[in-house]
Amino acid sequence: MRLRVGFENLPEPIVAHLRNSIHRRPRYFHVYHVTELTMCLRKAYYRRVHGGDEWGVRGLWNVYRGSLLDSRWSPLFPVNQRTFLVTKRGVTITGKFDFVYDDGGGPVLYDLKMPANLYYKKKEGVGQGYRRQVAAYLALAHANGELLDVHRARVLMVADDVVVEEVEEWSDMLDVWLWPRAFMLDSALNLRDPSGLQGPEENWECSSAYCPASTDFRIAFARQGGLGADLSLEESAEESALEVEA
Predict the structure, then answer these.
(1) What is the DSSP string of 109-156?
(2) Where does the chain show beta strands of DSSP type E?
(3) What is the model's pTM?
(4) Is the pLDDT assigned to residue 202 strictly greater than 50?
(5) How far apart are CA 164 and CA 162, in angstroms?
(6) Domain locations in the chain?
(7) What's the pLDDT at 42?
(8) Span 21-240 CATH architecture
(9) Which of 2, 56, 55, 58 has the alpha carbon at shortest distance from 24?
(10) pLDDT of res. 224
(11) How far is CA 69 from CA 62, 72, 80, 204, 231, in A?
């Protein structure tokens, strides 16, 4: 029996389809998505100046699966996929939640995630980054005068099993946490200096093994021409790096 195991065995037409099916949104200057601000700010900085991440076939599949299910499931709910933004001192924060659902206990804002597996999530919960992300969507909605009857949020994770975690509303999140981080990141990008940004946080993605702000990444990046070599702050928004639609 000849047995081959691994995503590298997918035929090239399928790999090409995965790659071409991933929708990305432009990263505009002075406009920051909630996903950037709730992760390690140094990672957000390096992703912007470096031009984003390259995925292997497994990564392409994970993104494709999540995007496909989200596009099929979110429209099942009357209130879904609404984008909010707020602007202050020339800086904009934006974010789009997945859907709102009332299962009899009042309306709840949901953020849908499709991770590769849920082994650690079953033991430790969805993680601080995802909790902050769904709380930020609720804060943005209220700042826009919408979903004012919604005061609960949940992260819904679906993979080999289902994990749901309740997230408390953070009423003053914009003023005390999101705006300071947005201004900090914007200033670092304007000055081309990430040294003042907050370093690795409690999210596992900000550990040295994964975060682009790690020493190994900075060394490799410097060899490619130095910080910001491939991204000019004067270039148009259409030419700027792209990010996965979430």
Answers:
(1) EEEEE--S--HHHHHH-S-HHHHHHHHHHHHHHHHTT--TT--EEEEE
(2) 24-26, 31-33, 79-80, 83-88, 91-96, 99-102, 107-113, 152-158, 162-168, 242-244
(3) 0.81
(4) no
(5) 7
(6) 21-240
(7) 81
(8) Alpha-Beta Complex (3.90)
(9) 55
(10) 46
(11) 11, 5, 14, 25, 33
CB 111 within 8 A of CB 156: yes
Residues 6+ apart with CB under 8 A from 102: 108
Res 137 pLDDT > 90: yes
Report the alpha-carbon distance of residue 28 to residue 46 in Å, rounded.
15
Q: What angle do CA 238, 242, 243 make, to 5 degrees?
A: 140
CA atoms of 115 and 117, how far apart (whole Å): 5
Residue 31, CA distances (Å) to 55, 140, 142, 186 in order: 24, 14, 19, 9
**Buried b / exposed e along 132-144 (16+ C-beta atoms within 10 A):** bbbbbbbbbbbbe
Query: Mapping DSSP to helix (H, G, I), strand (E, B) and coil, where does residue 49 land?
Result: helix
The tokens for 69 are 């299910």
Nearest to 139 by CA among 210, 217, 131: 131
Q: How far apart are CA 111 and CA 94, in angstroms?
A: 15
Q: Distance (Å, rounded) from C-alpha 23 to C-alpha 25?
A: 7
Q: Residues with Cβ < 8 Å from 181, sequence gap 6 or more?
A: 37, 41, 198
- Is beta strand 24-26 parallel, antiparallel or unpaired with respect to 79-80? unpaired
